[in-house]
Amino acid sequence: MRLRLTTVLTAALLALAPTTANATPVTPAIPATPATPAIPVTPATSATPAYPDPQPITGQQIIHDPTLIRLNSGGYVAYSTGGILGARLSKDRVHWDDAGNAFATPPSWWYEYNDTGDPWAPDISYRGGKYWLYYAVSSWGTNHSAIGFATSPSGLPGTWTDHGKAFTSERTDDFNAIDPALIRADGRLWMSFGSYWTGIRMVELDPRTGRAVPAAEVHHLATRPDAPYAVEGPYIVRHGRYHYLFASYDTCCAGVNSTYKIRVGRSASVTGPYVDRQGKPMLEGGGDLVLEGHGRYVGTGGESVFRDRGRDWLAYHYYDAEDDGVPKLGLNRLDWTRDGWPHVV
To answer: Given this model, what pLDDT does residue 49 score?
Structure first.
């Protein structure tokens, strides 16, 4: 895709990329909030944060809901919403080339969830000697959704074997099975997911099959106190004694009118409850701001975290206010305060 888009092509790209804003769903009652764990509370600060710009990048910058990994073979790959999971390759994490799509054609089962076979919001990881790619298939405004997965020996586009559905949601559920992200904790494999409805959820996966454990409990991690419960796109990482839940809040996919921002909370247990610095549970709308729009970088969200040479990096998309709101790749190093809270640098 060319870097300079006409207004029509920009609108088309945004139409392909509505990963995480399944807007204005029917809103069921929210389950009772678990008790807040005994996690040290950090005093609030009145200082207004000054958010750093993303690192400069060149080449193919257009992306939505990026997931990145450093390959064992060298270099980096990024997958994203758009196309059949659009792919980008880089040798240095600075210059990115368009590398086509993860798949040559959509698996037939995707059409059960939308008419165009469009997948959303991938998550790439490496375990058991191979790469794993989880992704969502759905339609705008519905929770008739599925999370599928594929494996590859190299992680490169065109090498993925699809394995079908890992987890699904239906219109009778009070959650939405999109925006998957994996984490291993305490010797078990977990997948966080969710968008609107009652917010962020989690299920345990069987590491042998890659699918949800049969009859697995669906844990509740985060929501908003007000309809339409605009929180989605979770990503969990472990740092020190805690697990940190990053999530995107507010409006995605509206170009320069997007209000997406990234918030975080932490928990001693991977299944929560997660709280912010002030001890407010994310199940009650809590969450500290990690990054929000500033200057030309509008609607920062759709985030993931990846490890590179011993450091954590935050990947996300933003809408470029100086380029008609085209969604582009944002990369910032993620650092940690002495009391264990993340911030972008």
So the answer is: 64
Give yes or no for residue 37 having a pLDDT over 90.
no
Tokens of 307: 């490890």
Q: Which residues of 273-294 are buried (b: 16+ CB within 10 A; e: fewer)?
A: bbbbbeebbbbbbbbbebbbbe
Q: Is residue 34 part of a domain?
A: no
Which residues constitute the domain of residue 229? 13-22+51-344
Q: How many domains does the chain have?
A: 1
Q: What is the CATH number of the domain that holds 141?
A: 2.115.10.20
Residues ≥6 apart with Cβ < 8 Å to 303: 233, 235, 246, 248, 262, 291, 314, 315, 316
- What are the residue numbers of the active site? 65, 232
- Residue 28 forms part of a structural domain: no
The model's pTM is 0.87
Buried b (16+ CB within 10 A) or exposed e, 107-120: beebeebbeebbbb
Q: Name the residue type at position 97.
A: D
